[in-house]
Protein: FAD-binding oxidoreductase
Organism: Streptomyces thermogriseus
Amino acid sequence: MTENTSSSVGVIRVGDDAYQDLSVRGINKRFTAEPEAFHVVTGTEQVVNAVREAVRDGKRIAVRSGGHGYENMVGDPAVQVVIDLGEMREVSFDPERKAFAVEPGVRMADLYRTLYERWGVVLPAGDSATVGVGGHVAGGGFGSLCRSAGLAADHLLAVEVVVVDASGDVRTVVATRDPADPHHDLWWAHTGGGGGNFGIVTRYWFRSPDATGDDPREALPRPPASVLTGTVLFNRESLSRTALRTLVGNFGRWHENNSAPDSPYTALFSGLVLFGRPREGDPGMGAVAFVHVDATRPDADRLMSDYVSELTAGLGDFPAVLPTEVVPWLEAKKALAQAQDAEIGRQKVKSAFLRRGYSDDQIDTLYDYLDSTDHSNDSSLVSLQSYGGRVNAVAGDATASAQRDSVIQAFFMNTWQDEKLDETNVDWMRRLFRDLYAKTGGVPVPGEENDGCYINFPDTDMADPEWNTSGVSWEELYYKGNIARLREIKAKWDPRNVFRHTLSIRSEG
Ligand SMILES: Cc1cc2nc3c(=O)[nH]c(=O)nc-3n(C[C@H](O)[C@H](O)[C@H](O)COP(=O)(O)OP(=O)(O)OC[C@H]3O[C@@H](n4cnc5c(N)ncnc54)[C@H](O)[C@@H]3O)c2cc1C
């Protein structure tokens, strides 16, 4: 199909039928996008035209691909033009680059299915079905295969970006992993520097750094053909303060001991989801642990049972260990996505990288908040997920994803529906996080125990001195020592700061 490059095609303005649907497309219902126009683009030339027009007219731009950003990067009332790449959804193999070319509007479920069914390979990345590649890869991208195969960004070979220079000229640049490439720094910025900072990504190319030859089936890792899945349920009434200390302590210790890049347990990925007490009625589940092990390994059953027995040690017989199942790979990934994508509504999220498991004091704080009834959210959770493994085989400055010796990624989220309850629920989440990290100024300051936050789970409180009293800037929490280079790249590639949002990189600290 020939791309129609006319700038008026796909331009949706206030009053047009599709405007309202485009307004509410973002995942976090706290934020509605209400620009003068959405440019629903289908190719790079249309992106160039849309940016050129906006720059010429002095309009503030925001970029959207999958619409799964948790903070207000796109719905900010200051935004006048939203360039929406959600319809750019092609996945192909580019024989010249010997790499998979993936457009930013591709959703994760489609990416997994196409790569696997056509070529038998996978991009190790997030577990949601509906997240867009556009924002996800630029922020690093982690999921159930990352302990065995690294982050999505670790497999990024090249990126096509629409950029604006100091005089306002708009052009398309391809930046690659090749250190001799004059645009290499722009590639590096897209391996964890976060979306919406440097320009608009119109295509990613993926090929593993150690891939050889021309065969697409060798260009990216192969996922295990089947997955051994396990589930352990912890009912709320038995999950006392002491039991929570034991459970979260076990999870932390196990990850401290089994997350080296060469551990056999890189074949195992687990999540421990701790649920908040519902406001009323049914007490709900206290916690669920899910486990995925590469079922093609001869020792898969042993890895699973050793893990489950360490996780449940000291808890007596109340944890309900469900029978394990062997599930084909795509089906197993789908089941993870269903759990992740189920929460819909108004949300507040936070994140932390853990180098060590939580202390008893911290677990008590989690208990107090998760057991409390002084909130009005429909649901709240703290999800601790396996990290490390091959993610930690890469140096902290080799990509922009700086956290390379953590063992757990912690994700905090609450969800509610009524706008009038925004303040109480955001406040509940803020207090939880502040008290959890009371020792380090209310935030996970990089050090022996913590390693900052994850930019794909952005949280504007990290830039607010009321909630971050650590003296460590939000940029250092997300990017650690890589922030200096990211600032230089920002100054070079977006000197007019055209691409900016509430947590974007500034060229000056
Ligand atoms: C239900 C759910 C599950 C998730 N699960 C995981 C997970 O398992 N692992 C994980 O790592 N993350 C996960 N995430 C986080 C996800 O990776 C980020 O929210 C990601 O930024 C979403 O990208 P998007 O394109 O869908 O979102 P958008 O809202 O479209 O974009 C997010 C940010 O990226 C920018 N951006 C988008 N497209 C482009 C582009 N083409 N060029 C430049 N900048 C762009 C936007 O301006 C914005 O700042 C999850 C999020 C949700 C909502």
Q: What stands out?
A: The first strand starts at residue 11 and ends at 13. The chain is about 25% helix and 20% strand. Residues 11-84 form a domain with the Uridine Diphospho-n-acetylenolpyruvylglucosamine Reductase; domain 2 fold (CATH 3.30.43.10). Residues 27, 62-70, 73-74, 85, 104, 126-128, 131-132, 134-136, 138-139, 141-143, 195-196, 200-201, 340-341, 456, 501 surround flavin-adenine dinucleotide (CB under 6 Å).
